[in-house]
Amino acid sequence: MKLLILSGPNLNLLGTREPEIYGSETLEDVERFLREAASSQGIELDFFQSNSEGALIDALHAARKDCAGVVFNPGAYTHTSIALRDAISAIQIPVVEVHLSNVHAREEFRKRSYLAPVCIGTISGFGTTSYRLGVDALLDYLKRRH
Known about the structure:
alpha/beta; Rossmann fold; 5 strands; 40% helix; globular
């Protein structure tokens, strides 16, 4: 089984961008610990990060062909992108929305997600562990569905 781990804008700066909010671990650290956890379960992971909305949409479209599901940290596009919402809806595979910070405890505009209604669930507030929790939740969902 293959899953896509998709990361949106500014996540390439993890570890250096506002570490008091997002922590000191890098996206490479996230990839490393997810790969280690997945390998023991026989799960294949693809990773992709982009600051471009169009590239994220293309990655979602491509995932529908060979991935069982997606763990997606859309960053700020969460609060602005109807195009990403439509892409998630169109691909017809399960997507878990994840966020490092607790978006509900931050600025008012961060409390609205255009993506949550078309995702199977949302995990936020656990730092980089949110990605692992997203993978675990997605795998549990896939097992229960089959």
